[in-house]
Amino acid sequence: MEFNVIKGMSSTREIYVTDNDIASKLGSGNIDVFATPAMAALMENTAKSCVDLHLPCGYTTVGIEINIKHIKASTVGMKIRCEACLIEVDRKRLVFSVEAWDEKGKIGEGTHTRYIVNSEEFMEKIQR
Length: 128
Prior knowledge:
Substrate binds at residues 63, 114. This protein is an alpha+beta fold.
């Protein structure tokens, strides 16, 4: 099956850091700053939303690899902007460049790999 995803597609998401996004709440640290797992989830979600509308009905993507650096801390209330750009398409394998910034500058960067799957077939396979 052919998929209507092409190299260069991009998407942007913005959030505000809340108490639910901090390291002390998520268990990844003891300080009340934007947690690395929260940044990773934002990066994955931004990459997913980049291609969602371009897939046929019944198809989605699943994340299989993330390689990121969290390079600067952000506090509760700060606006975080994340960008994902599709940099490689190999049949069903999609590789994204992901970056995130807060109001003071870049806070994270890396790559994220996702695979296109048929949702129903995927769930049937893992339930066997």
